[in-house]
Amino acid sequence: GELLGCVSGELGLRKFVEARGHELIVTSDKDGEGCEMERHLPEAEVVISQPFWPFYLTRGRMEMAPRLRMALTAGIGSDHVDLQAAMERRVDVAEVTYCNSESVAEHVVMMILALVRNYIPSHDQVLRGGWNIADCVSRAYDVEGMHVGTVAAGRIGLSVLKRLQPFGCRLHYADRHRLPAEVEAKYGLTYHATAQEMVKVCDVVTINCPLHPETEHLFDAKLLATMKRGAYIVNTARGKICNRDDIAAALASGQLAGYAGDVWFPQPAPKDHPWRSMPNHGMTPHTSGTTLSAQARYAAGVREILEDLWDGRPIRTPYQIVTDGQLAGAGAHAYSKGNATDGSEEAAKFKAGK
């Protein structure tokens, strides 16, 4: 595979963009006041950002970009853009829907198994030269028979449930859009109208919904207290859907047996972020949706969107988040109006080595 999703890879866009008469500027200096990315905003017509190392396009930054036509996510999830400001300023927002859904679903199943089977401490036992079987298995269980639920059963959530069915899990989902009855029957799914209703019965909860004002800090101390003691959470959606300090406290108290994921807020996470050091976690950097396979797909999707923009063609509906000042396409289906970028300035702490 080719490493397209990095500064040197440039999403494979340079020859294409320059052949169309445009200038492509690629940088990783995107956090803090006066960063290189901010210095180019006055001339920018399109801002492309990955969700894995995002450029937080806040209202203030949009005001620096009077020529901005589009914010384009090279991946899935456009919460790093102030969608409310984009609607008001009629800046279109698009993302490459579907590009890495299967990649993330695979990652979720891997993390569920890693937590429930106590894989990470067992692996650490080997690295330390040990062979204490009792320590390895003292927190290890089978997923068979466990109640596993997803918050949102869209592209990723449903893919997770499909992968878990052969394990003999009892499967649940909560979503504002109920799945067809035949899908529920095929996979043995139990529907819950709200996440609050679902988490009470689950041994494992996987979070697969977008971040927007209605889901920000959904998993706080109040909701966590309603879960089964010793439950697990896997979050590959967005870090800010969970209250940072409440998750760490729930792990310390034993209310949660484990927490894993690859999403943080902000990103990159400051070195003093409590999720780096909390007990019984399986956190990684934001990698689930940027395998080499996924990079090829989202790079191709970015090029398609740019071609449509520059040729005056409508962008395909599933790629649309904000169009002509309104939520549209996937955005209308999954997001709500408002802004979820508050606090993103903390990402500059990582740049400063903190």
TrEMBL record:
D-isomer specific 2-hydroxyacid dehydrogenase NAD-binding domain location: 109-288
Keywords from the UniProt entry: NAD, Oxidoreductase
SUPFAM superfamilies in UniProt: Formate/glycerate dehydrogenase catalytic domain-like, NAD(P)-binding Rossmann-fold domains
GO BP: monocarboxylic acid metabolic process
Record-annotated D-isomer specific 2-hydroxyacid dehydrogenase catalytic domain positions: 15-316
Keyword match Oxidoreductase: yes
Enzyme class at the top of the EC tree: oxidoreductase
GO MF term list: formate dehydrogenase (NAD+) activity; NAD binding; oxidoreductase activity, acting on the CH-OH group of donors, NAD or NADP as acceptor
InterPro entries the record matches: D-isomer_2_OHA_DH_cat_dom, D-isomer_DH_CS, D-isomer_DH_NAD-bd, FDH_NAD-dep, NAD(P)-bd_dom_sf
Reaction catalyzed: formate + NAD(+) = CO2 + NADH
EC number of the protein: 1.17.1.9
Superkingdom, taxonomy of origin: Eukaryota
One family name in Pfam for this protein: 2-Hacid_dh_C
Family: Belongs to the D-isomer specific 2-hydroxyacid dehydrogenase family.
Name of protein: formate dehydrogenase
Species name: Alexandrium catenella
Source organism phylogeny: Eukaryota, Sar, Alveolata, Dinophyceae, Gonyaulacales
